[in-house]
Specification:
This protein has 291 residues and is α+β, with helices and mostly antiparallel strands. It is built from 9 helices and 15 strands. The strands form 4 sheets. The protein has a 7-stranded mixed β-sheet, covered by helices on one side.
Length: 291
């Protein structure tokens, strides 16, 4: 079946119809998907629940995968190459309100881009829904290319060459969760990321922001924090957003280099079983932009 690309907004987010993700994709289909991903940044596939190997096989078409896991005190519920973005324990039961993993996962409701707290962050994320609550739990995406384009020229000149410091513990501290072991903290040292990136395929500039960003390198701390807050407010204005309402079987892949996203609250007495495959970027952002 021929693939069709149906934009959800003029230049941001699209559905892909005709793709069977339960089987390996051919080169022609992958070229269509890659071109659509470069243009729309967020792609939605509707379909049946995939096995873990099927999801991983799809994601590997786009590069090497991260090994997931932040907290080191529990057995994995899913494959080590998948991030368990659920409210479930290893027995598939809903976790309690004071569960340490739940507290950490609440940070996903802040605007962020995946793994920007790592020296080499994420390029693409492919999130797959196995079970969703009857309402709530949406994922919102922000188009950081359009947000950059909408800045005035003076602000663009100010931010183009800036570098921000990112840390996982910065975002978690914003929600009051600081319960990390020394070993966990040692695994995630601070990372420096370009504040503005150029997309290698489209050539478009985009803001590269996240709740993980704490300050601007070389700036007084208050000034850098205020700039980041102003840019986050600007980038998440309604005109730049797409909200995805999940159905079981949905797979959404997005380009972390030019988007931010956040999860939305839901009734946590219901199961929300989401699993994310994360494709590693080509290298540290500072090195990429200097090349």
């Amino acid at each position: 079946m021929t693939l069709t690309v149906n934009p959800l907004q003029e230049e941001f987010a699209a559905t892909i119809n005709g793709a069977d993700l339960t089987n390996p994709l051919g080169d022609a289909d992958l070229r269509v998907i890659q071109a659509a991903l470069d243009r729309y940044a967020v792609l939605v596939f509707r379909g049946p629940n995939l096995t873990e190997e099927q999801q991983l096989g799809f994601a590997r078409n786009f590069g090497a995968l991260e090994t997931s896991g932040i907290l080191g005190d529990r057995k994995l519920r899913v494959h080590e190459k998948l991030a368990d973005v659920s409210n479930l324990d290893q027995n598939d039961d809903v976790v309690g309100p004071t569960d340490r993993r739940r507290m950490n996962m609440l940070g996903n409701q802040l605007w962020h881009t995946d793994s920007s707290f790592k020296a080499t962050p994420a390029k693409y994320s492919a999130l797959h829904a196995h079970a969703v609550p009857p309402e709530g739990g949406e994922t919102q995406f922000a188009d950081m290319r359009a947000a950059y384009d909408a800045l005035d020229d003076k602000i663009k000149a100010k931010v183009d060459d800036l570098i921000a410091e990112h840390s996982l513990f910065t975002s978690r501290a914003k929600i009051g969760f600081t319960d990390f072991t020394d070993e966990e903290r040692a695994r995630f040292p601070v990372a420096r990321q370009q504040l503005v990136r150029v997309h290698p395929a489209s050539g478009r500039k985009s803001l590269y922001l996240a709740a993980h960003a704490s300050h601007i390198i070389g700036w007084p701390l208050p000034d850098g924090m205020m700039l980041l807050l102003d840019l986050m407010d600007h980038a998440t204005e309604r005109e730049f957003l797409y909200t995805h309402e999940w159905s079981p079987g949905d797979l959404v892949i997005w380009d972390n280099r030019c988007t931010m996203h956040r999860g939305r609250p839901f009734d946590e007495t219901w199961k929300r079983d989401m699993r994310r495959a994360t494709v590693v970027d080509d290298g540290p952002t500072v090195a990429q932009e200097a090349a």
